[in-house]
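Step 1: inspect the first sequence and its tokens.
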Amino acid sequence: MRITDVGGYALSSPIEPVQTRSFYGGRRRLLKRDVVLVVVETAAGEIGFAPAGASSSAMREYFEGDSQATFADLVEGEVADALEGETLDEVTDAHDLIDATDLPERVKTEAVSAVDVALYDLKGKRQGAPIHELLCAEYDTEPTTELPMYASAGMYMEPAGYADQARIIDDLGFFGYKYRPGIGPDGDVETIDRLAEAVTETEVMVDAHTWWKLDDDVYDAATRAEIVEHAGDRDVYWVEEPVEPDDYDGYRDLAGRGVKLAGGESEESPAGLIELAETDAVGFLQGDVRHHRGYTGCAAAIEHCRGRDVEFVPHNFGTWLGLVANAHLVAAAPEVRLLEYPVFEDDPALDHPEDPGMYPFELAFDIIEETVDVDDGQLTVPDGPGLGVTVDMDVIEEYPPTEGAWTEFIYD
């Protein structure tokens, strides 16, 4: 296919009024959520889409004032220059062209990720097949199109608030409930205890990134170990990112304390995912087609996990477009079964009298015209060609980009 146009559109979904969440030693302000929509067009008039833009943990400089418009500009600039006018025989031809630019390595990875997904969308549309069928042919697997999901929700609440939210998630039938602790060691332990009593079928996952963003005198190594061991005693399913992403020795120290560890979303490359898995310290490896060189890049990590005591579970903390993109991977990849579902306020796919959402993120839903099919905590993967959903291009005008970071951490 000959590429004629590559576009990157920065979008911002404001959080109004601004929300402030207190954690132990500081506050977190939630200002907006940013998204980059990448659009790739061929000479035949075919259009492929992809969600893009770096995650907050993978691209921490965004906390320091940069906005995702910076990445959109790079897509429209250096990335477009590398691809427009080129004829691609394979998806990986685009990887080679982007890798040959002078962009920083991390930006190359983000750009390759988006273009890879968009080209698979184009390929599926051209063949009249959903992406998961294309991937099944590559993996030599049969598709699984009803996917269990864990709900990614709780953020810096009192222990009773986490428990109330978890009960709603349990009612909705999700496989798991993931929350963000950080209200202090005693509060974190109490939350684990309350959650163990609150849910009946739903597993509990702890996303502990706040621990290493605070000073060591709050969550030092001994304190982290005590909380992790307590999580194991209360049958927590996993503890995610309990140490800084590159602290492999820290992962090793916490492994074997009664609960499996999860990590990988902050790794800068597919090779980094495999390096983390090779520590034998994590039971769950969290790659992401949006950040680890697309479907192509995630394949190496998935293959590494096969037959080993580590399960590939995609990270996903963005829009429904990102959800669908990762869902096609889960539907096809061998020994991959679980998907992350971020829960935002007023989610039209969830039917419950109480709202378990973290904060408003209307663009998450509005970016596609369809409502994703969620029933009893499971997602039915779209079966239309390519991604199988219709991107609503009106969001480009309805959600103009605003400058600055999407969130701020303020430390006492």
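Step 2: inspect the second sequence and its tokens, then contrast the two.
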Amino acid sequence: MHNSKSLFINISFTFISSWIQTGDRLIEPLFVWVYAFFVVGITMAFFASRTVRAGQLLGARLRAASPLTAAAAASASRVRDTAELAAAEAGPQQNKKEFAFAAITACVGAAAFFSAWGPGYSSQPVLLQEAPKGALDPNTWIHFKLEKIEQLSHNTKMLRFGFDDANAVSGLSVASCLLTRARIGNEGKDGKPNYVIRPYTPVTSPDVKGYFDLVVKIYPEGKMTQHMAKLGVGDTLEVKGPLPKIPYSPNMKRHIGMVAGGTGITPMFQVIDAILSNESDMTQISLVYANVSPDDILLKKTLDDLAASHPNFKVFYVVNNPTANWKGGVGFTTYDTIVKALPPPSDDTLILVCGPPGMMKAISGDKESPKNQGELTGLLKSAGYSEHQVFKF
């Protein structure tokens, strides 16, 4: 009986904890069945022990009533001896405790049964909510329909592409990008279509359902950007991904510095959004964002609003062609800008770099290939950073 009590207590604790955390209608019915039968079994065991005691009393009365009942009395005596041994070990107080224990188990068993099978019962348990599926596929080109076009500047657009499933997420992680593909120009000598493929980083959070947004700067000689500039609402674009870049986890570094140029802000924004939308992430962020003119600064209002509302985010703008009322940096990103605006070299800091080839060469040196970061050179090398403290998008 003692072992049964211990088992009952452990199972009851699990049941009640689940009941409190998930709600009485959300407990797996199979578990409730097992628990209810266990409780019934404990209760029946208690009444079986009571029956043994009743047999003891019956045997004594039969012996006193008549010699004709000797055989029955002998049988009852064997039952009595067993019951007396158990009663002597437990004592009268234990018998009272067993009765109370059986009563409680019966009540809890009834509540468990009613919880799972009473009014409002649903045969569909809701213990774990299935994670939304990702709309992207890293191995397959998928056509996504253009749903919205927003003009951000004289040469930059935000394009929103929708999913067939409005509840699907993109499947992107922080930080990762996707590939776009368009059939441009004539077929090659082998007769195969001539495709242009370019990577882009969506500026929407990976948790957003139903669509993703791309910020596209239209270059006069850019084959893909010219193609995307001509897309209209309802047209489609082939996309494949995601392509993981650098895996980010909350508080992985104390301070992250960023140097971005032009559309190089998009992977930075992905990381910035992940950090600032997580209240438990205490990472400090310092962004140096370089552009040709103030009108070329992408997502400026969003960045300014984030900096105003989050003390752990600082942004410093640099432009080549300032306006009369410009209050930020002027010219190119210099050694002094790097030293003043970014966190100093440390194993607890990380510098992210993304921008056009000329900027990459001056700041960090370009990558050798998509999978090879290449040698660290430029201003970051001069400022004392090491290769493991810098990541090039």
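Step 3: confirm your contrast with the notes below.
The chain has three domains: 2-117, 142-244, 255-392. Residues 26 and 127 are 6 Å apart (CA to CA).
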